Amino acid sequence: MSRRQREIAGGRRSAQGRGETDPGRDPRQAPRLPVNPPAAGVLPAAASDPFVNPARLHRALRLLSGSPDDCRARAAGQWREDGIWVGEQAPSPVRPVPARELERLLGGETDLLVFDALEGFDVEAFAMALGMVRGGGRLLLLTPPLEAWPRRPDREMERLAVSGWPPVGPSRFLQRLANLLREPLEAPPPRPAPALPEGGLTADQAAGVARVHRTATGHPRRPLLITADRGRGKSTLLGVAAGRLLEERGARILVTAPRRAATGILFEHVRRTLPGARPTGNGLEAGGGSIRFVAPDALVADPPAADLLLVDEAAGIPLPLLLQLVERYNRLVMASTVHGYEGSGRGFELRLKRALDRLRPGWQHHRLQQPVRWAAGDPLEAFGFRALLLDAEPPPLPEPVPSPGSCLVRALGQEELLRQPGLLEPLFGLLVSAHYRTKPSDLRYLMDAPNLRLWVVQYRETLLGALLVAEEGGLPGPLRESILAGARRPRGHLLPQLLATRCGVPEALGARCWRVVRIAVHPRLQCRGLGSRLLAHLLEEARAGGVDLVGSSFGATAELARFWTRLDFLPLRLGHRR
Question: RNA-binding: present as a keyword of the record (predicted)?
Answer without folding.
Answer: yes
